[in-house]
TrEMBL record:
GO terms for molecular function: DNA binding. Residues 261-355 form the BEN domain. Gene3D superfamilies: BEN domain (1.10.10.2590). PROSITE patterns: BEN. It comes from Phoxinus phoxinus (Eurasian minnow). Residues 219-254 have a biased composition (Low complexity). SMART domains: BEN (SM01025). This is BEN domain-containing protein. It comes from the Eukaryota. Residues 90-132, 199-254 are annotated as: Disordered. InterPro entries: BEN_domain (IPR018379).
């Protein structure tokens, strides 16, 4: 048989702490599996209940939270349960004042004893007074502080909290200053890599020095011109010679993986600089220059496509790109993949522009 009636105790609202008998259909999301066969809950069953008292408002009945105590298939059972609960919560009846014999018929000692007994019974019969939660909080935490003036303890607490906030701000400023001290060195290293990646243009008047022959290549005759010797050197040799620098070799011992399982490692300083970025775009830009050498970025783009009549670019390493995408989505969830790709191409275009400007400034006029 379906149990349609329930006894609830209101946890909030105008009937806070009171008991009511209601229908189970006014209990939002009522779950009968939480009640046993006798109608009692297995555990404390708290739910949101419609408070149908008075006139129905325009927006509907108000909802308050309450605890389901008992359910039954008949209202008779719920009323009987409600009456038993109310009878249990009724305060004990006050004991009748004991009769006291006139003073002239008894001793003074007996009279005093009766008066004391009467006062004790009156004290016991009084219902316990509900204390203010704020007063209990102040008594509990105000006495725990070793202060002679209890009324000054809240003020002292506010002062201590303000001082703690000030100390935390100073510590945060020091940490930012420590991070910013390492950033100029990183920018200088990037500038040196960009400068070394762009081959300087030589004038016709300036004599060119012959470059050393590559290992395994046939020896060149002295009659060959220096220009021919310099042109015979492959571009890959230039890129490899510029990519291996003492600063990068020395920092290989302090690297971190940008995303677990990818095997893509970057310098710890570059990683710290990237994770302190305030947006996904800045994060991708920093991570791109940390993962790929600049000389690789200058001759590549995201997918290796060819734009217009320009030369075809080399595609970037797919494993490293996937690591950058995964690290970005982990740090900035919800970032669109197209936005990450656009940021990578924009950064590569910016590096090419800077490389051309460096080449123009280094060329003699």
């Amino acid at each position: 048989m379906e149990r349609k009636f329930a006894v609830v105790r209101w946890s909030e609202g105008e009937d806070f702490g009171k008991l009511s008998d209601i229908k189970t259909d006014v209990i939002r999301g009522y779950d009968d599996s939480k009640m046993d066969q006798d109608g009692n809950p297995f555990a404390t069953y708290s739910a949101v209940i419609e408070w149908r008292h008075g006139k129905k408002q325009r927006g509907g009945w108000p909802h308050y939270r309450g605890t389901v105590i008992f359910v039954s298939a008949t209202r008779f059972e719920t009323i009987r349960k409600l009456n038993s609960l109310l009878k249990e919560e009724e305060p004990t009846e006050l004991t009748k004042r004991a009769s006291v014999a006139p003073q002239k018929y008894g001793d003074d000692s007996d009279c005093s004893t009766d008066i004391e007994t009467q006062s004790q019974q009156a004290k016991k019969s009084k219902a316990p007074r509900r204390t203010d939660p704020a007063e209990e909080f102040l008594k509990l935490y105000g006495q725990s502080q070793p202060s002679s003036d209890n009324h000054n303890s809240p003020t002292q607490t506010v002062v201590e909290l303000k001082q703690e906030i000030k100390d935390l701000k100073e510590e945060n400023a020091k940490l930012k200053e420590i991070v910013l001290q390492d950033v100029p060195g990183l920018l200088l290293s990037l500038r040196n890599i960009i400068d070394s990646a762009a081959p300087p243009k030589r004038s016709r008047v300036e004599p060119t020095k012959a470059l050393p022959a590559l290992p395994g290549s046939p020896p060149q005759s002295r009659s060959s011109s220096p220009c021919a010797t310099s042109l015979s050197l492959p571009r890959s040799t230039l890129s490899s010679s510029t990519s291996v620098s003492p600063s990068l070799t020395a920092s290989q011992s302090s690297k971190v993986e940008i995303h677990p399982g990818t095997g893509v490692m970057v310098e710890k300083l570059a990683w710290a600089y990237a994770i302190n970025a305030n947006s996904a775009t800045v994060f991708v830009r920093h991570l791109l220059t940390a993962v790929f050498p600049v000389e690789i970025l200058l001759v590549s783009n995201l997918r290796g496509n060819k734009r217009g009549g320009g030369e075809a670019r080399q595609p970037l390493d797919k494993n490293k790109l996937d690591a950058i995408y995964s690290a970005t989505l982990e740090k900035w969830p919800g970032t669109q993949l197209s936005s990450i790709g656009s940021t990578i191409n924009a950064k590569i275009t910016e590096l090419r522009s800077k490389s051309k400007n460096v080449g123009v400034h280094t060329a003699p006029h």
